[in-house]
Amino acid sequence: MSELIEKLNWRYATKRMNGQTIPQEKLDNILEAIKLAPSSVGLQPYNIVIVEDKALKDRIYHEAATRQAQIPDASHLLIFAVWEKLTSQHVEDYLKLVASTRNVSMESLAGFHSSINGGILSRSEDVNFDWSARQAYIALGHGLVAAATEEVDATPMEGFDAAKVDEILGLREKGLRSVVILALGYRDAEKDPYVHAKKVRRAHEELFISI
Length: 211
Hints:
Belongs to the nitroreductase family. This protein is an alpha+beta fold and 211 residues long.
C-alpha cells in the first residue's frame, strides 16, 4: 500500500476536534495544495477565506452552522467562497497574469480571450455561479488530500446557512458567496465516536466500470 493510500485510510470526516492549533508550516502546505488545484481554463473563480479568530468561529457556530461541533474547536476554518458575478474584469486580470507569468504578449492570448468571452461570459450568472462552485469543490478535494498527507484532520461541511456566514464575514461586500467550509484541526480521540470506525466504501468492482 502506498503512503498516500495509507494517509487517505487514516483520514475521516472528524466530528470532534480538540482545539489544538495546526503548525504554520502544515497549514501553509495545505493552502499551497489548494492553490495548485486545477480549475476550468485556470481561472480559479473563488477565494478561500481563512478564519482563525475564535470569536468569528463562535459566531459561525451559534448563528450559521447548526452548532456543528467541529466549528468552534477547529484550528482554522477555510471558507470556500465563489465570485458572486463573473465579470470581464476577472477575465482581463487573469489573462494579464498568464501573460506576465509565461512572458507572452496579451495579443498572443487573443484567441484564448475570445474563447472565454464566447463561452463562460456568455452564460447566465446562475450558470456561472454553479460552475464556479464546482471549481471550488475541486480545490476542496486538493485540500482534503493535502491535510491527510500532513496528518491534519479535515472535515468538509455544507450544513450551514451560507447567507449568514456571508453576513458574518462580510463576503457579499467583497463580491463573494460561501459554498463549502473545510474545518482543519486535530481529532479528539476521547469524544469523537467515529475515531476508530472502519471506512464504509463500495467494493472496487461496484464503484468502477471498465468499458
